[in-house]
Design goal:
Elements lengths: L1 E6 L6 H15 L3 E6 L16 E3 L15 H17 L3 E5 L1 H12 L7 E4 L11 H10 L5 E4 L2 H5 L3 H4 L2 E3 L22 E5 L8 H14 L4 E5 L5 H10 L6 E5 L13 E4 L8 H9 L3 E4 L5 H4 L6 E4 L4 H12 L2 H8 L2 H8 L1 H16 L1 H17 L2
Parallel strand pairs: 1-2, 1-4, 2-3, 4-5, 5-6, 6-7, 8-9, 8-11, 9-10, 11-12, 12-13
Amino acid sequence: MRLLLIQGGFGAGGAEKVMAMLAAHRAARGDEVHAAALSMPAEGSYFEYPPQVALHVPPQAGQGGAGRGRGPVQWQRFRHIRSTLARVRPDAAVAFLTKVNVLTLAAAATLHPSCPVIISERNNPQAQGGHPAWRQAQMLLARRAAAVVMQTQRAREALPCALRARARVIPNPCAPYAGIAPRLDPGRDGLQLAAAGRLDRQKGFDLLLQAMQEIHAALPATRLTIWGEGPERGRLEQLRARLGLQSCVSLPGLCPQPGGWIGAADMLVLSSRYEGFPNVLAEAAVHGLPAVAFDCDYGPRELIRSGQNGLLVPPEDPAALARAVIRLARDPGLRQRMSAMAPQAWARLAPDRVLADWDQVIAGVAGPGAAQAAQAASAGSSSSRL
């Protein structure tokens, strides 16, 4: 089978990680896999791709992508996706995130023969920012989608009835990183708190800094590291200074190693105003890193069993977030019991299990011819290794 995966960029992020995992999985099955995006970091893809996976980016696509804004920029992105579809001629294409979903569906509609397109919404479409025209366009064009993948049942239920019937719930695959474990030192007074994500309003790091003022007052030796980069950096640094938290809060940028932030943390704090399926929370769960999170839509409630592997607090309530962090920091026995819940999360999010669900969706839209070709290629590959 010839498969094309399309995303916004090759940087750090949950959707980026899933696309890389899916690409590696399908390539190992013997598929001809192509991965396309609108941007490529100067240092290359944040997540590793097998050498046999072909990567496609627009000419001169640097950090931040093929430009920003509307009008000509979106036309350039549409042309890149359309030309990649026309050149690759995939048996199926998988698109991730609202704008890419819209552009891919529109581009596929202009080609003959058109390939089936699976769209995957990775965020909360009812809460995320951006022009509402993108959401309206996705609802209109989604009728052309061969299948729809959502990350949680609650997100699926938010879809219009016609789309809900064709939607499949598939969480993010997640497994522990080799050689990485949380600190979880019960005798340590000054715990290391971690937060991770794009520095934008969605992630609520401004609310976390407000909570940190109370946490620092109660636990002066506790430190917070916010991993990530984004447009809110300047505003967050100003807020940190205004709250007098320079000595206990650091913003070092992207973590050099995927998942590396876990090994330097005793606890994850998720302060998002809304989510799709927070990958950092999934990574914390499978590593046994206790977490405190706002109970926002969607994702935290699907990953945290409050009181068992973490604590949930009312959304956008910094005082409640601070109280939960202080409670957990002062109870090393509870942190240890929460850490012991990691095997349950790992079993539910095991890549083999989750990627098998993706295989079913892809096989269901690509048709018998593509499936037979994939089986023949896989058999030939196996015999050549004997």
